[in-house]
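To: structure desk
From: M.T.
Subject: fold request, one chain
Message: Could you run this one when you get a chance? Sequence is below, nothing fancy, just the single chain.
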Amino acid sequence: MSLNYTFSIIKPDAFNAGKAGKIIAHLEAQGFVLKAARVMQLSRRQAEEFYAVHKGRPFYDELVAFMSSAPCMPFIVQKAGAVTALRDAIGATDPADAAPGTVRKLYAESKGKNAIHASDSDENAVRESRFFFAEAEVL
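Reply: Done. Structure tokens follow.
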């Protein structure tokens, strides 16, 4: 059974371009309920730890540098089947391949600067949420 919440991050490219509010509003219009959010800048160490699953892959160092380069907005949303629903709402990693009306089609710059991260499984939603938020911070 799918969790009713999931984790996401508005990445530095979208946050710095002033798109965070538009992205959250877009998700809320699709029935997601914002349960926790914060604005922060990841340290290199935090980005390395968060993306450790990708260590050794060709894009890892670039991803860590990008995610620690400027402020971002980690958040948790709630909706039935949240993980799958959010992945559908954000679209393909490459905005050129993303479906019309998805977050990445609307707000991403490129495959590397793709506006948003979303957990890819219930297990990762729990792990990633706990990386950024204490249980008491989630409404």
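Reply (cont.): The domain at 5-137 is CATH 3.30.70.141 (Alpha-Beta Plaits). Let me know if you need anything else for the meeting.
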